[in-house]
Amino acid sequence: QVQLVESGGDLVQPGGSLRLSCAASGIVFSIYAMGWYRQAPGKQRELVARITRGGTTNYVDSVKGRFTISRDNNKNTVYLEMNSLKPEDTAVYYCNANFQVKDYWGQGTQVAVSS
Questions:
Q1: What is the pLDDT of residues 20-57, one digit of tens each?
Q2: What are the backbone dihedrals phi and psi of residue 56, each rounded to the nearest 5 degrees, phi first?
Q3: What residues contact 23, with CB distance under 8 A and at least 6 apart?
Q4: 78: closest CA among 96, 92, 63?
Q5: Cα gap 6→9, rounded to integer Å
Q6: What average pLDDT does the segment 94-99 reach?
Q7: What is the CA 1 to chain-centroid distance, rounded?
Q8: Cβ contacts of residue 44 below 8 Å, gap of 6+?
Q9: Integer Cα distance of 89 and 48 in angstroms
């Protein structure tokens, strides 16, 4: 059974930092592209960052220079380091694993940025 378990969400003040983690099981993690998506209330889910199995990364423009995605294939885990957080980063953050037609999602972790 495939499981993606996110952790690390929290309430943080503007300008603060968080590190999200997504631990995967039930898949050959190293062959999957991994992504972080987010969904704010009343908005569509959007791709935040993605890392291919080869380590190539891409980011939505609004987080470039502030967020960093990385993966540890030995731990079957993908991370999202988030710095200089803004209120508009408030959302539920979801982990995604994708390989060809196989697509899996985690349950999400809440990030709230507020003073």
A1: 999 999 999 999 999 999 999 999 999 999 999 999 99
A2: -70, 135
A3: 3, 4, 5, 7, 75, 76, 77
A4: 96
A5: 8
A6: 98
A7: 21
A8: none
A9: 10
In contact, 95 and 76? CB cutoff 8 Å: no
Which H, E and C letters describe the chain, residue by residue?
CCEEEEECCCEECCCCCEEEEEEEECCCHHHCEEEEEEECCCCCCEEEEEECCCCCEEECHHHCCCEEEEEECCCCEEEEEECCCCHHHCEEEEEEEEECCEEEECCCEEEEECC
The pLDDT score that the predictor gives to residue 94 is 98
Cβ-Cβ contacts under 8 Å for 100 (sequence gap 6 or more) = none
**What is the chain's length?**
115
**In a 10 Å sphere around its CB, with 0-12 CB exposed, 13-18 middle and 19+ buried, how is residue 96 labelled?**
buried
